[in-house]
Amino acid sequence: MTENESASGTAHLVPSEKCTVHIIMGSKSDLPVARKAIGILEELELDYGISVASAHRTPDLVEDAVKRSGASVFIAIAGLSAALPGVVASHTRKPVIGVPVSGKVPFDSLLSIVQMPPGVPVGSVGVDRGDNAALLAARILALNDDACLSALDRYTIRMREKVLASAEEVIGDI
Ligand code: C2R
Question: How would DSSP label each residue in 91-151?
C-alpha cells in the first residue's frame, strides 16, 4: 500500500507513528471488513494507519507494528482462530478493539476475541462490524477530543436523518 492522502481522514504507511487509530489486519483477505472501518474514520476525519500482520504467521511484525505505532486506539481485524487482537493487547496498554471476521465456522473468531484470559482485555464488536469498531474508537478518542465529539454528533444527526427518510419512504410505499 502506498501512502495516500485522502480528502478527509489520512491513511499512513505502516508502521505509522502519526496515526490516531491503527488498524491491523491478520490478512489482506480481511480488507472488506477493514474498509468499513476506514469509511467511518474518513467520515469522522480521523487519521489512521493500516498494517497487515499476523500473530500466527508473522508475530515479529505484529510486535513491531504495535511498538512503533503512535496510535491511541488499535483496531485488530481477524478471522478463524483470531489471536491477533489479544496479541496486540499484550504489546500495548492502549485500548484494543477486536473485529471478528466471518468464515465457514460460526463464531470461531468471535469467541477467540471475546474469550481473552483475565488480565489482557480486548473489546469486541460484532462479526464483520468494522464500522462499529471505528465508531467505538472515535468514542474513546472523543473523551479528550472535542473535534472528534462534534464529528460523532454530526454522524448521529445524519444517521437520524436517514432513519426519518426511510420511515417516510415506507409510508409512501404503503
Ligand atoms: P488468509 O485469507 O490469508 O488465508 O487468512 C486472517 O485474519 C484471515 O481472516 C485467513 C484468515 O486468517 C486470519 N488470521 C488470523 C491471524 N492471522 C491470520 N486470525 C492471527 O494471527 O490471529
Answer: T-SS-EEEEEEP-SSTTHHHHHHH-PPTTS--EE--TT-HHHHHHHHHHHHHTS-HHHHHH
The CATH number of the domain covering residues in 4-145: 3.40.50.1970
Atom index in ligand 1 nearest the CA of residue 29 equals 2
Query: pLDDT tens, 76-114?
Result: 999 999 999 999 999 999 999 999 999 999 999 999 999
Note the pTM of the prediction, 2 decimals. 0.91
Cβ of 66 closer than 6 Å to ligand 1, yes or no, is no
Ligand 1: does its nearest atom lie under 6 Å from the Cβ of 128? no
